UniProtKB/TrEMBL annotation:
<dbReference type="InterPro" id="IPR033524">
    <property type="entry name" value="Glu/Leu/Phe/Val_DH_AS"/>
</dbReference>
<keyword id="KW-0560">Oxidoreductase</keyword>
<dbReference type="Pfam" id="PF00208">
    <property type="entry name" value="ELFV_dehydrog"/>
</dbReference>
<protein>
    <submittedName>
        <fullName>Amino acid dehydrogenase</fullName>
    </submittedName>
</protein>
<feature type="domain" description="Glutamate/phenylalanine/leucine/valine/L-tryptophan dehydrogenase C-terminal">
    <location>
        <begin position="143"/>
        <end position="344"/>
    </location>
</feature>
<comment type="function">
    <text>Catalyzes the reversible oxidative deamination of glutamate to alpha-ketoglutarate and ammonia.</text>
</comment>
<dbReference type="InterPro" id="IPR016211">
    <property type="entry name" value="Glu/Phe/Leu/Val/Trp_DH_bac/arc"/>
</dbReference>
<comment type="similarity">
    <text>Belongs to the Glu/Leu/Phe/Val dehydrogenases family.</text>
</comment>
<dbReference type="InterPro" id="IPR006096">
    <property type="entry name" value="Glu/Leu/Phe/Val/Trp_DH_C"/>
</dbReference>
<dbReference type="InterPro" id="IPR006095">
    <property type="entry name" value="Glu/Leu/Phe/Val/Trp_DH"/>
</dbReference>
<dbReference type="InterPro" id="IPR046346">
    <property type="entry name" value="Aminoacid_DH-like_N_sf"/>
</dbReference>
<dbReference type="Pfam" id="PF02812">
    <property type="entry name" value="ELFV_dehydrog_N"/>
</dbReference>
<dbReference type="InterPro" id="IPR006097">
    <property type="entry name" value="Glu/Leu/Phe/Val/Trp_DH_dimer"/>
</dbReference>
<dbReference type="InterPro" id="IPR036291">
    <property type="entry name" value="NAD(P)-bd_dom_sf"/>
</dbReference>
<keyword id="KW-0520">NAD</keyword>
Length: 344
């Protein structure tokens, strides 16, 4: 397995492979960059086909966290951890505590948090071995980062709509949301409250049905969401959803959602741009969660201040779209450059 010449390797500062025979732990922690602060990033537990897949994921996700935190103006670097395991079958207290010891061995250079396959309960077990954990919530005030992520996406979406259509109001704006899980459902409710008309899709038909009824939304089959006659497409399910084929197929002229790593390949940004589709770079739009997780690390937690910070995502997105237009570049290129400037 190649590491230093891996296509996703980007001068990562440290990559740690951890193994614990007793609990069956097989994990990788990637610390991408700590110039702005400790490398914070979630712990993904997923049954990767092999360790090459796990390495690809952790390298890509940890770099994304560096850029996300830099553009969200957080005193954090970027890191990520993955455990090669099925979260429904293999997640045991012994496995999580072994992971806690691995995190502890980095002495605070890496701070872990929830991600897909891991939740607040798991973080409590990890906390028994290390204090370098966030995402444990602060009583009734915080905890689940998804409402904050959704609010950030909502702010980014409003900014994109202003740039693309020259309007501030969302009334009667047509929005298609792919995936109405934690983030997608919160986003749908905020958009509904602002007067938008929704088209929803999810592979989980039960939760989709209930939400559609509540919000008087149209629901469509998962594959049909790309063809919906809408103004905005909001990917809130999985990554790599924006393939060349999808870029050619979309009817929406704004793409703004919560999913990480939406572009299947970097060239899709150019294809969207050529078709006049304004794409809000995912790691800028979906930074609300990490802003909340960062705030939880401090003694004083002020929910209003966290919300104001999340709302500044609009300002960053505005700057990216304005520069992209002036420089005739894609918003993705501009976002990457802006992040590198902040790291510089
Ligand atoms: P989630 O698992 O709660 O929701 C995802 C939803 O997508 C589920 O309801 C699932 O059934 C649905 N789905 C899966 N495949 C689908 C398909 N092909 N078509 C339609 N629906 C499909 O996850 P979440 O926490 O809401 O996160 C959503 C996305 O946002 C993920 O990509 C995640 O990495 C990203 N994200 C989440 C946060 C957060 O705060 N939770 C923060 C940043 C980024």
């Amino acid at each position: 397995m190649r590491v230093f010449d891996h296509p996703e390797f980007d001068h990562h500062q440290q990559i740690v492979f951890g193994c614990d025979e007793a609990s069956g732990l097989r994990a990788i922690i990637a610390v991408h960059d700590t110039r702005r602060g400790p490398a914070l990033g979630g712990l993904r537990i997923y049954p990767y086909a092999d360790e090459a897949d796990a390495l690809t994921d952790v390298l890509r996700l940890s770099r994304g966290m560096t850029y996300k935190s830099a553009l969200a103006d957080l005193p954090l670097g970027g890191g990520k951890a993955v455990i090669i395991a099925d979260p429904r079958r293999d997640k045991t207290p012994a496995l999580l505590r072994a992971m806690g010891r691995l995190v502890e061995s980095l002495g605070g250079r890496y701070i872990t948090a929830e991600d897909s396959g891991s939740g607040e309960e798991d973080m409590r077990l990890i906390r028994q071995e290390t204090r370098h954990v966030s995402g444990l919530g602060r009583g009734g005030d915080s905890g689940d980062p998804s409402p904050f992520t959704a609010h950030g996406v909502f702010c980014a979406l409003k900014s994109a709509v202003r740039h693309r259509f020259g309007r501030d109001e969302l009334k009667d704006l047509r929005v298609a949301i792919q995936g109405v899980g934690h983030v997608g459902a919160h986003l749908a409710r905020e958009l509904h409250a602002a007067g938008a008309k929704l088209v929803l899709a999810d592979v989980d038909r039960d939760s989709l049905g209930m939400l559609s009824e509540e919000l008087e939304a149209q629901n469509v089959a998962p594959e049909a969401i790309f063809d919906a006659e809408v103004d905005v497409f909001a990917p809130c399910a999985m990554g790599a959803v924006l393939t060349r084929e999808v870029a050619d197929r979309l009817r929406a002229t704004v793409v703004c959602g919560a999913a990480n790593n939406q572009l299947a390949t970097p060239d899709v940004a150019g294809r969207l741009h050529d078709r006049g589709i304004l794409y809000a770079p995912d790691y800028v739009a979906n930074a609300g969660g990490v802003i909340e997780v960062e705030a939880q690390r401090h003694d004083r937690y002020d929910r209003e201040a966290v919300m104001r910070h999340v709302e500044r995502i609009s300002t960053t997105i505005d700057e990216i779209f304005t520069r992209a237009r002036a420089e005739e570049r894609t918003p993705s290129e501009v976002a990457d450059r802006l992040a590198r400037e902040r790291l510089g």
